[in-house]
């Protein structure tokens, strides 16, 4: 049914769900919180129809609601991060099992929930801006600077529209953008990672899967760059270098022997669902691996040991 003047239909809102999820994910660093924020945004939009009255474009209006929801969620809380931001590098033989709560960590997001369809150029920009390293770097920015940078640099909004959305001036928006850029320039945003993965890198990742499933550690180590890092949220622990990763896999990590890897699409990057061998047969969910690749080597091996993520990726509960 056609909408009358000032009216908004359900499809007018639902068409923005995916891009809003991407926006909220970049703001919040959590796929679960992003979904909650978008759902809250949709509810507020429905309740706010009377106040909307068509005075602005639906997209601007709903982004204003989403921004305010995210700013409220971020108020007074600790930023999310990866293990490399939270403590010194560890040793494979010094694992204590110490953990941090879920809200401490940046978590992965399925590509299907945040990347647009259509224009390859838009998809490429979206992939770049949901890389794990980039999203983690965004969390270092004050919340309003974060919103300004995402709206201006990622979504390409004019400064005038961003100023209107945030209830501030163009000069203030430009100043916040300059400060955000300066901060990001000091951080590792993963800009040297190929997005999407090239054909040569895909062949290398096929060798990685084969080596991991055979638990051929020498072959696996051959695929790692000298400065490779491995993290395992929620464990407050990370490793650097092929020798330490090799020691982990044959030491504390030996339980991964016999695992199966299922390809998934996460953060615009190579990723796998890791299923651990069950004593009674078959395999059960264990971790979502996000693999960072530069050139022909793996530079990041991030294992998110939160099995509730498997549902977000539409994965089976058992193999």
Describe this structure in words.
By secondary structure, the protein is α+β, with helices and mostly antiparallel strands. Mean pLDDT is 91; it is low at 1-6. It has helices spanning 10-14, 17-28, 31-47, 49-52, 58-74, 83-86, 111-114, 120-128, 132-138, 143-154, 159-166, 170-184, 199-214, 217-221, 242-250, 309-312; strands at 224-231, 238-240, 260-266, 269-277, 283-294, 297-304. The protein has a 6-stranded mixed beta sheet, covered by helices on one side.
Strand order of the largest sheet: 2-1-6-5-4-3
The biggest sheet amounts to: 6 strands, mixed
The fraction of residues in strands falls at: 5-15%
Structural class by sheet pairing and helices: alpha+beta
Could you give the order of the helices and strands?
HHHHHHHHHHHHHHEEHEEEEH
> Whole-number radius of gyration?
21 Å
Distance between the termini: 45 Å
What is the average per-residue confidence, as pLDDT, rounded to a whole number?
91
The number of helical elements comes to: 16
**How many structural units, i.e. domains?**
2
Give the overall form: globular
Q: Level of helix content?
A: 40-55%
Fill in the CATH topology of the largest domain: Nuclear Transport Factor 2, Chain: A
CATH architecture of the largest domain: Roll
The top-level CATH class of the largest domain is: Alpha Beta
Unreliable stretches (pLDDT < 50, length at least 5) are: 1-6
Number of strands: 6
